[in-house]
Task: inverse folding
């Protein structure tokens, strides 16, 4: 039976997101279109591609700050 390690899945998802984000922000200006709709939509957009990519770290920061604030509230 094959067991899946959750840590490996997180690292794989992070690497996949990094590759897509790198293409959308850096490489799409130099490479031709891929004929894959989501990638081409990000490559041709000039404003919202940054919003979509920065939503992940901003959301993570919000979750962590909210958790820390809740811990301070509980322990005060």
Result:
């Amino acid at each position: 039976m094959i067991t899946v390690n959750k840590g490996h899945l997180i690292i794989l998802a992070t690497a996949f997101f990094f590759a897509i984000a790198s293409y959308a922000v850096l490489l799409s200006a130099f490479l031709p279109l891929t004929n894959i709709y989501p990638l081409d939509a990000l490559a041709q957009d000039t404003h919202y591609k940054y919003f979509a990519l920065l939503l992940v770290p901003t959301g993570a920061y919000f979750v962590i700050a909210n958790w820390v604030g809740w811990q301070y509230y509980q322990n005060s």
About this structure: The mean pLDDT is 86.
